[in-house]
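Same chain as my last thread, 284 residues:
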Amino acid sequence: MNLKLLLANTARAAFSVALALTFFAFTTAAAQADSSLDAAIAGEHRSAENKARDQYRHPKETLEFFGFRPDMTVVEIWPGAGWYTEILAPALKEEGKLFAAQYSVNPKASYQRRYFGEFLAKLGSNAKVYGDVEVIHFYFPYQMNLGPADSVDLVVTFRNAHNWVTGQGTDAHFGPMAFKAIFDVLKPGGVLGLVDHRWGDPANEDPRAENGYISEQRIIDFATAAGFELAGRSEINANPKDTRDHPQGVWTLPPTLATGDANPDKYLAIGESDRMTLKFVKPE
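reply #2:
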């Protein structure tokens, strides 16, 4: 056989093997992520009440969209009472690491104090599931260090970013500060996955987001100003039934139902809020 032809055939064969190995590694990693999320979501440690919200929050599809893998180092910002922590902690337990970036130990808002207490009680209730979760603090304006620079694969935050423009009881807003802190802790190529209550038109949104809604464009502007690139948008958590004109803002809807006995069936029929699902990447 001609030597050049032999070398060419050998090169093509080597490329095919390399491609097959790459595909195998990719599909294996995807299968492992799929399996770990399925097990975590179906886990007996999750209450029936929390599982009932899966239909609105689509945790598996959302985390897969963000590129979740069970071997990642992940920071969950402001996990509240720990709805997503119930999924992330067991899914990361064997190969990965979860940092829960909670409020300060003495936050100003009463709901934050309540959630923080519930969260710590949750962690203490099941060492098998939550024993490896490390609690850190992320609170404006002084507790803003999420860890060593370039050390985290994935940062996620769910229904929180609108709070970063309210000032948390002050006249300032902390959007730029928050996104810069997240950018700094991520590795090059790392991902910020964000879900929040979506206001439709940035031209007429509340600049302080006191109704709980914020526009996609405003979030994108904050993130790109910090250095992120928008890597994708998903309608996984969209809800076209949400008219956004509720008497108690987004908290009128479930699970809060802030109006109490006033038209609960109406708001239960709407379901949880319309939500943006955005994926940002730190450039390599």
